[in-house]
Amino acid sequence: MKTSDFDYHLPPELIAQRPLPQRDASRLLVLHRSDGCIQHQQFSDIQHYLRPGDVLVVNNSRVIPARLYGRKASGGQVEILLLAQLDDTRWQALVGGKRLGAGAEIHITGQDGEETAFKAVVTAVLDGARRELQFNYPIHDFLNELGHTPLPPYIHEPLADAERYQTIYAHPPGSAAAPTAGLHFTPELLLAIRNSGVILETVTLHVGLDTFQPVTAEYVSEHIIHSEWASLTPETARRINEAKLAGGRIVAVGTTAVRTLETAACRSAGLTGSLQTISQHDASGETSNLCPWRPVMAFEGATDLFIHPGYRFRAVDMMITNFHLPQSSLLMLVSAFAGQPLVRQTYETAIAERYRFFSFGDAMLIL
Prior knowledge:
The protein has 367 residues and is an alpha/beta fold. The chain has helices spanning 143-146, 187-195, 234-245, 255-268, 278-284, 329-338, 340-352; strands at 27-31, 38-42, 55-59, 62-63, 67-72, 77-85, 90-96, 105-109, 115-125, 130-135, 173-175, 199-205, 228-232, 250-253, 299-303, 318-322, 363-366. It has two domains: 3-63 and 162-366, QueA-like, CATH 3.40.1780.10; 67-146, Thrombin, subunit H, CATH 2.40.10. The longest helix is centred in the C-terminal third of the chain and has 14 residues, at 255-268.
């Protein structure tokens, strides 16, 4: 399957530049996989598609002010997007600027543009714009003073309230981008869902590089997805498994929750080591002996699970997601869940109906 199979034309005016005043006022496209039926609703209507005993699983990772600016000794401007913390002073980052090879020194500037006491040295050149940086002091606790909200490059308007790029349940800091499917929930909506008998559970996946980079390989199977840190606690795993055995459905809020749950299910199925090639294995029938459902297993650590058409879902029954960029790994994951032809038709419908796309856009519920 070629990466170009996941391309589509989006009118630029459909890229949402700002969030709506009310989070749950976004539109909701409901896609029924069984017959391809599409319904057009408001996001607050999502509670009517959930049943008592279902498990709504959200990613509670909080976006850090991960975008830093700095200057080289020569005065050249540098932009840094922190991706993953390696230890107290070492980070993996995307670095924009010229001649930033190993040994290059970057003087970090503050939000006022003035130089600070912080410096970073490039200690390793990775693929593309990725670099390993060594700071002279631990910088994590100073990001609120030094950093900027890392809005995606397709958003050109400043964000009046940085909290609108956080979910209402965001807690452990660590993401370089928001798990945007959760941006639609309000406290009132979550309370109504819980009071209807739906079980609310949280997992953590710190969003990293692949949210910002499109798939560039000609063939999907050749793409190497970068690992992201994720966690599912033993207590959460037990409650999810008990609810599933009692007849509930597992409803993942966003592709990050999907990857976390499916990683946990793959581990319980004995698929250890790198998860990069599981979709290829599934498509070739090498895992045909697996049960349709697998319990989730508690874990904490990196996941490199790349879900694309051919992958067999082991845990997730329903998915809430936004509309994703062309040729992105996120669109490939959604296409694996609902089928690539049906997703393509659904996106065509969403464009014709003038849905708002990407991070601050509308949502889709896939049943």
